[in-house]
Amino acid sequence: MINRTVLVGRLTRDPELRYTGSGAAVVTFTVAVNRQFTNSQGEREADFINCVMWRKAAENFANFTRKGSLVGIDGRIQTRSYENQQGQRVYVTEVVAENFSLLESRSSTERRQGGENNFGNNQSAPSQQPTSSGNPFDGGQSNNSGAQQPNNSNPNDPFANGGQSIDISDDDLPF
Hints:
Strand content: 35-45%
Radius of gyration: 24 Å
Order of helices and strands: EEEEHEEH
Oligomer: single chain
């Protein structure tokens, strides 16, 4: 049998993180997924799909998303039932999310939300200013001619060697 669900949509509200009696994290959220077609008035409708996620993934999801975040969800559909306080049987169908992807940057979410920053525990998100040359490996240095200046201080640059040639022998190659 196959039970796989992939959703791409926006959160309709902030995720609700709780902990079970045994200490397991669980987060519930709703994803609005646009339909592929329009209705008779030419408007695009959406489906609102309830989801649940468990353990460490739940904590990460709650820390890095909020209402309006564009997310990708990978999981399975699950049905369950319980008896409510009035003694009626209630049936629930939801997606048990196993993996998620953040599909837009924090800055995009913040711009869309009007600049509010509420990620994590109300900590400020680090501002990511583009480097002057647009190259993330040059440490923000460029000269007036537009040519890149080598920068040995950037540990993310595997080619930072002060402009020196690299000597590679045939024994260094894997093929």
